[in-house]
Design brief:
globular, 19% strand, four-stranded antiparallel β-sheet, 11 helices, alpha+beta, five-stranded mixed β-sheet, Lambda Exonuclease, Chain A, 3 domains
């Protein structure tokens, strides 16, 4: 089972590809990893796919044993490496009596095109190859097999240990860990959804007045204005610049810009939604039916009025943007 405390301050197998800028499956970034570990944004709660993957680990290891004739041992224990303070790993399993690990994957239909027919490592997404290399370094194993359930069909791949590549990965990971985890230097922010969530949590409300922009903010705004007015092909570049501007503002509501230009990041008004407490309605209805044997329309209306409540949904901060030409747009 994942030990989130051991993983929090260390680099785990699934973190390696994002840190190296090589996540070809999910597009996770180094900033996302940093935000999860020390930046106040947690992504360690079990998602549906993580839960499904965990439930399939033991069955897939049994299938692996049936297909290969090897004895597969379920591990699923997080280890904080005793020699490398930056390293943690949680392998799914291993082959009894051999220096060979096993990773079990459940591949969704949307990710199946990233996987080849096997058994070569080149048919495995690079993110997974890096994860296997991390596990081999931690466990000192010579090979790592991946059994992937792809569209209902189990496929086995083998990743062999490559010590030169392993040394390069460990060096890059340790350098990143020392700078960004140990020393607390924030990585370059990206346009990822995780970065947007982190910004919303770090700066949920705007306070004070608009600020006079620094030279750096003016340059970012001018670039942002240029990108916002171009085609949607530049959406990723726009997202990165938006998050950089938000980060530079922090809790400040926006920038005082010359002419008609405007850039603010303000909290929208709270919205109110009327929610019916259906459980209480059902209890009241059942009580009336049992005690009186009937329920009139007037009584039903009264019951609805009693068992409703108003819930306030907090507003979120939204960008208001007006370029120097007066063009206006808004974004989350």
């Amino acid at each position: 089972m994942l030990d989130l405390e051991k993983r929090r301050g260390r680099i785990s197998g699934s973190d390696v590809a994002p840190i190296l800028g090589q996540d070809d499956l999910f597009g996770k970034t180094a900033f996302d990893v940093w935000a999860e570990k020390v930046g106040g944004f947690g992504d360690d709660a079990e998602t549906l796919w993580r839960f499904i993957g965990h439930q399939f680990e033991e069955p897939l290891l049994r299938i692996y044993g049936f297909m290969t004739g090897r004895e597969a041992v379920h591990l699923d224990v997080t280890t904080a490496d005793p020699l490398r303070e930056f390293m943690a790993y949680t392998p799914d399993g291993a082959v009894a009596g051999q220096r060979r690990g096993i990773d079990a994957k459940v591949v969704g239909y949307g990710q199946a095109h990233h996987w080849g027919p096997g058994p070569s490592a080149k048919d495995v997404p690079f993110r997974v190859q890096l994860q296997c290399a991390w596990y081999m370094a931690g466990c000192d194993y010579d090979a790592w097999d991946v059994i992937a359930l792809i569209k209902g069909t189990p496929v086995i791949y083998t990743v062999e240990r490559h010590r030169e590549m392993e040394a390069a990965i460990l060096q890059r990971a340790e350098e990143w860990w020392k700078r960004h985890i140990r020393d607390g230097v924030q990585p370059e922010i990206t346009g990822s959804e995780a970065a947007r969530c982190w910004l919303r949590r770090q700066f949920p409300k705007d306070t004070g007045d608009l600020m006079n922009p620094t030279a750096a903010q003016l340059l970012m705004f001018e670039e942002y204005a240029r990108v916002r007015e171009l085609l949607d092909d530049y959406g990723e570049e726009r997202d990165i610049l938006e998050n950089k501007l938000k980060l530079s503002l922090g809790a400040c509501p926006g920038l005082k810009l010359p002419g008609k230009a405007r850039f603010t990041w303000k909290k929208a008004k709270d919205s109110e939604t009327v929610i019916i407490n259906w459980e209480a309605v059902a209890r009241g209805l059942a009580h009336k039916l049992i005690t009186a044997g009937y329920l009139t329309l007037d009584e039903w209306g009264t019951l609805m009025e009693i068992q409703t409540r108003t819930v306030t949904t907090p507003g979120s901060r939204r960008i208001y943007f007006r370029s120097g030409t007066g063009k206006v747009s808004q974004a989350a």
